[in-house]
Write a structure and sequence with these properties.
2-enoyl-CoA Hydratase, Chain A, domain 1, EC 2.1.3.15, two-stranded antiparallel sheet, 282 residues, 2 domains, alpha/beta, cytoplasm
Length: 282
């Protein structure tokens, strides 16, 4: 019998090296899962160039996209939420407000003001989902109501861009009261014959959908936006039935007459200008 022995040391395995990509350089699309250069998405107005998925954007970014340059004059920027109920769940509401203000750079979940679209005067209210999920509390309801009243005062059309998880639970019944408050203001606007255009973006749910968001003279939406009152999972558990494909998405709502049109982000300003000219006969 012959025995063999190793005369050399075993080969040292090559140490694996991980290449770290600069943070924020690439973005994975939530719809098609493609990895896309972030700058390419930014150049395409935060829309996926592969599948046309519309990423959420901030209120300020949407204002820059839709209104004429340097025409926006903000209203009620100093209004901030207050923890008048001393509410606490997993975290104190006061702390949530402080964190949201720091993240959004001040204000609340909606930015309101006056401006122009292709030279046509408008009053706009734009939700920012990064501020507590765009939830509607007392400040949001007050700012939207004041924006509508500014439209009444100046006889300028009102446009609201909704992006919200609904009423803010930390303010209890006071947040629900904003549904009636904003709807009553819109009733006065309608009585005065001043147009209201509602633009529903992803997501528009809860008490926002159940109040002003669906009361537009024209209800517009971006592609594939989630729009509804309760979430699909809650509805399925309640009615014990499987929901149709695409339920509560823009395309489904358009097919069933719940919204008037779906408009891509690239076309939004031109379409709003067209509708405003029809309403105001310019």
């Amino acid at each position: 019998m012959v025995w063999f022995r190793k005369t050399k040391a075993p080969i040292t395995p090559v140490e694996k090296k991980t290449v770290q990509m600069p943070e924020g350089l690439w973005t994975k699309c939530k719809n098609c899962s493609e990895i896309i250069y972030a700058k390419e998405i930014e150049r395409n107005l935060s829309v996926c160039p592969k599948c046309d998925y519309h990423f959420r954007i901030s209120a300020r970014a949407r204002i820059d996209l839709v209104l004429d340059g340097d025409s926006f004059r903000e209203m009620d920027a100093n209004l901030q939420s207050v923890d008048f109920l001393e509410f606490k769940d997993s975290k104190r509401y006061k702390e949530r407000i402080k964190s949201a203000v720091g993240k959004a750079g001040g204000g609340d979940a909606v930015v309101c003001g006056e401006g122009t679209i292709d030279g046509l005067p408008v009053v706009v209210a734009v939700f920012d989902f990064s501020f507590m999920g765009g939830s509607m509390g007392s400040v949001v309801g007050e700012k939207i109501t004041r924006a509508i009243e500014k439209g009444l005062e100046t006889r300028a059309p009102v446009i609201i861009f909704s992006c919200s998880g609904g009423a803010r639970m930390q303010e209890s019944i006071l947040s629900l009261m904003q549904m009636a408050k904003t709807s009553a203001a819109l009733a006065r606007l309608k009585q005065a014959g001043i147009p209201f255009i509602s633009v529903l973006t992803d997501p528009t749910t809860g008490g926002v959908t159940a109040s002003f968001a669906m009361l537009g003279d024209v209800n517009m939406t971006e592609p594939r936006a989630l729009i509804g009152f309760a979430g699909p999972r809650v509805i399925e558990q309640t009615i014990r039935q499987t929901l149709p494909d695409g339920f509560q998405r823009s395309e489904y709502l358009l097919e069933h007459g719940m919204v008037d049109m779906i408009v891509t982000r690239q076309e939004m300003k031109a379409r709003l200008s067209q509708i405003l000219r029809i309403f105001t006969r310019h």
